[in-house]
Design a protein that fits this description.
Layout lengths: L1 E3 L2 E5 L2 E3 L7 E5 L4 E4 L4 E4 L6 E6 L6 E5 L11 E5 L4 E5 L1 E3 L9 E4 L1
Parallel strand pairs: 1-4, 2-5, 3-6, 4-7, 5-8, 6-9, 7-10, 8-11, 9-12
Length: 110
């Protein structure tokens, strides 16, 4: 399991998966801001591999997924995709902003 604290800025695609029998897990601590570069995002699981995302913020210490722009604009980054082989997701007190969709975007893929 990989744990992330602090802030991640300007990163490319984040892929969270291992293989068809063992899931990788990415845990993100409360208060972390993840800032994505243009046209990038996060993929949890894949069509053939399992992955987990555990992002448990609090009411006063949210986890934020957003763009790395100084003035964020909608559509800059691609959002978070959970694939059907995703073993587990836990998202509490998180915020997605300025994704490629009309609203903050988390999508389930099959």
């Amino acid at each position: 399991m990989e744990e992330v604290g602090g802030s991640l800025c300007g990163i490319g695609w984040i892929s969270v998966y291992k293989d068809s029998t063992t899931a990788s897990t990415l845990s993100i601590e409360p208060g972390v801001t993840v800032k994505f570069a243009q046209n990038t995002g996060m993929q949890v699981g894949s069509t053939t591999a399992k992955g987990n995302l555990v992002a448990k913020g609090t009411a006063t210490n949210k986890i934020v997924f957003t763009s790395n722009q100084t003035t964020p604009t909608r559509g800059f980054w691609s959002g978070i995709s959970f694939y059907n082989d995703t073993a587990r997701q836990a998202l509490w007190s998180t915020q997605c902003s300025n994704t490629a969709e009309q609203a903050p975007h988390i999508r389930m893929q099959t």
